[in-house]
Amino acid sequence: MQPTNATGVPDFLERMRETLPEGRVPAKIFNDPNVYALERERVFSRAWAFLAHESEIPHPGDYVLRWITDNSVIVIRDEHGQIHAHLNRCTHRGNQVCKAEMGNASHFRCSYHGWTFKNTGELMGVPYYREVYKESLNRSEWGLRAVRVETYAGLVFGTLDPDAETLQEYLGGFQFYLDFFLKPGPGGTEVYGPPERWIADADWKICAENFGGDGYHTPVTHQFGFHLGFYPSSGTTHFMGYAVHMPGRGHTIGIGHTPGLPPFSGFPQEVVDGMHATLSPEQIAVFKDARMAVGTVFPNLSFLTQPFSLTPKQTGVKFCTMRLWHPRGPGQIEMFSWCLVPKDAPQSVKDELYRVYNLAFGPAGTFEQDDFENWTNLSRQNGGSTAADFDLAYFQGLDWEPLQDFPGPGHAFTPYVTEIGFRNLWGTWLNYMLTPVGQQVDRSRVPPAFHPVDAKGQP
Fold it and tell me: Which domains, and CATH codes, for the chain?
């Protein structure tokens, strides 16, 4: 067991407050039982967690089961089209009331004592209501516990904190970058089928970091792509582009550029036309020359758009994957991976996008296998007994200044390969971890240095 202070916080997290501004991150933040227990209590109990895409529940009564750490959540559309989320827990004895991963239901009946709940959460049926309860049970007080939900561009988020800031405030301007993934046309996006899911012995945080814009690993981990000509870039151009983060919020994105590519290369013409119809001039200026874009919404939702071609030296087709790094315990995740497709696109385009996505980032995808080999090894090594006094190096960009004329919000830096956004991610995570339950996370403190900010959000 690691030493803790009077508040139950491991000592190495207190030390991280001093070492993070120097570019040092304790290895014990990965794959540590004390850290995971504190994350459940202080991160996932307060953050907005991704639950589902609206297209997964298109009809009244449609539902899916999802999770916020170890809390099972029913996400359902009621008979009037409104989206609800309920804890999947009967209020009588706590039994699971919904056991199917997805389906359609107007009611949920507990298999233990038969309490029955409407899909809006109200308790409707109680066996022996007259004989046993003498009609004295106030059913309005014993409905399924609601999880607060809000949506953005088809994404359904939930929070366990009734006093949490709104989702719009939580995203804090990162919507500007999410639109590139979520608004490829007036109809937005839809998922191409249910998510692919698998269990892996990896810490969720290293996955979230990687998809926050880790272009540094690509020429090494995925070097086959360069050797075989599957990338529209080379080792001498791959680092180019922009890294952007939202100070104090942990959201971060990497936007890779390759000189000479045509605007919105790799996208079908229907999608290019849709982007011009839905994105602002500032968004088009940021993304039109992007070879790829990869970003993370704090804490554990990520997106990636990149080209992949089976024909060497050709740009290929740009697909979009959305993935949730769901923690199952210290050093273990359940992977949820979707292919997002433009809702307005022809079916032939959707089919091709899914085919390319599956080859690259499906469960047996070429890139997916490369990444998870590293992530599982990293998680295992950082769980060893010698990791307690071991710091990881996050030195890239320590003395860089943000761009002053970047069209988008947040702090932007060039080139794309840097660890500035990752230090912001870890600083935001640390801010949550060091803030006791019952207190609001102070957004006026900007990680990693925890300097106060002025009214414009500048340190």
Answer: 49-154 (2.102.10.10), 173-434 (3.90.380.10)
